[in-house]
Write a sequence for this structure.
């Protein structure tokens, strides 16, 4: 190709201004972890010094979603979701294998978020997330699951980890003790959670135990029993040094500080003073303190961008019309709230809407639930696109 001199100069200028296909891209992060071992101080808010890591597992899901967009005009916005810090769920023994590769690109300034989620008799009050371990398989939980997770964390002493321990488990023991399934699961939940807290109490780790949300343990009658249930397990674990407090709103839809609150005009609202997550964190936090347990909190804001979608506060499955919420930040405006974080990976389903499936739960068939939806944890492309379109703040 022969260029005139002016054309050549124009070409050279544009080549300087915009990177060409051959311009080396800055590597995302070649090195894993810090140069020395990480020691986290769980008496402080580690999220003020570490950024929640945008993990490569979710990045791959989002990149596949970008390639499959039904509306290509969403591409630029969709690609940005991959850069948001999000927790990685270890929901089966096999899926512990997702952790090691996801640690290859965690820079020293980031903290890797991991959800520990495989108790025997899991999801005792619902069906959608019933797990692989049956009630009674506590030894398998300890040796094949918790010990295996601990081994990976120990093999990466130079990486910082934030763990969320067993979403929904202890809250179910507080409010669903009338169900036979939860009665059957109770001993294994208490023993399993205590074992996880004890075994994962490593210097490079901070731990948060799940406490449901304001519409769950926030009811007046549940505050004290809830705090006592969590505190008893924390103490049974030997009051571990790396324990920081609770997670709330995991995979949930509640607003942080909406006042008077999304469900404040319902007939029973007088019995729940925790009408948003901020009041829950503060009110339940006081109960935790009284029960003798550390009470700082992280709050899942991954999918709470839109309010007013649920018919009832307890509706939890693939709420239709939802949008991505506040991006992870340690600027919460509350001393007890360490950070807003993304826990539920937006785009992964809460449960199937297929009524013939073994794990079909009627909540996933309610009129405010998005349909069709695949099995819990599986990708729902259409739902991801809706979360993006309804994101608040927008991408
Ligand atoms: C599912 C898990 C999944 C997690 C994150 C849970 O509801 O049961 O399988 O890993 O959500 O999407």
């Amino acid at each position: 190709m022969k260029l005139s001199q002016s054309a050549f100069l124009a070409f050279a200028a544009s080549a300087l201004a915009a990177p060409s296909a051959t311009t080396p891209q800055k590597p995302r992060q070649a090195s894993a972890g810090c140069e020395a071992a990480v020691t986290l101080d769980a008496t402080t808010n580690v999220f003020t010094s570490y950024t929640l890591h945008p993990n490569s597992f979710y990045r791959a899901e989002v990149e596949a979603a970008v390639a499959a967009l039904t509306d290509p005009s969403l591409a630029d916005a969709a690609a940005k979701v991959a850069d948001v810090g999000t927790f990685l769920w270890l929901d089966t023994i096999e899926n512990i294998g997702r952790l090691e590769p996801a640690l290859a690109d965690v820079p020293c300034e980031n903290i890797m978020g991991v959800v520990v989620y495989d108790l025997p008799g899991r999801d005792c009050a619902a069906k959608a997330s019933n797990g692989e371990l049956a009630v009674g398989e506590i030894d398998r939980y300890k040796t094949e699951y918790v010990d295996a997770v601990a081994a990976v964390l120990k093999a990466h002493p130079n990486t910082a980890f934030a763990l969320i321990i067993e979403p929904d488990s202890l809250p179910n023991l507080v409010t669903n003790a009338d169900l036979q399934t939860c009665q059957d699961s109770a001993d294994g939940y208490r023993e399993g959670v205590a074992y996880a807290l004890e075994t994962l109490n490593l210097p490079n780790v901070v731990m948060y135990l799940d406490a449901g949300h304001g519409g769950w343990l926030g009811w007046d009658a549940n505050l004290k029993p809830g705090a006592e249930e969590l505190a008893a397990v924390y103490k049974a674990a030997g009051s571990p040094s790396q324990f920081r407090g609770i997670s709330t709103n995991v995979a949930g839809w509640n607003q942080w500080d909406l006042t008077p609150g999304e469900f404040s005009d319902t007939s029973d609202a007088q019995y729940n003073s925790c009408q948003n997550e901020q009041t829950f964190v503060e009110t339940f936090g006081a109960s935790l303190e009284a029960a003798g347990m550390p009470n700082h909190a992280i709050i899942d804001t991954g999918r709470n961008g839109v309010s007013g979608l649920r018919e009832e506060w307890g509706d939890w499955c693939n709420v239709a019309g939802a949008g991505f919420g506040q991006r992870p930040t340690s600027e919460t405006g509350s001393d007890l709230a360490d950070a807003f974080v993304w826990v539920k990976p937006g785009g992964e389903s809460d449960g199937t809407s297929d009524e013939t499936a073994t794990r079909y739960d009627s909540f996933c068939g309610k009129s405010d639930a998005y349909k069709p939806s695949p099995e819990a944890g599986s990708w729902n492309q259409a739902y991801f696109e809706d979360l993006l379109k309804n994101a608040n703040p927008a991408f």
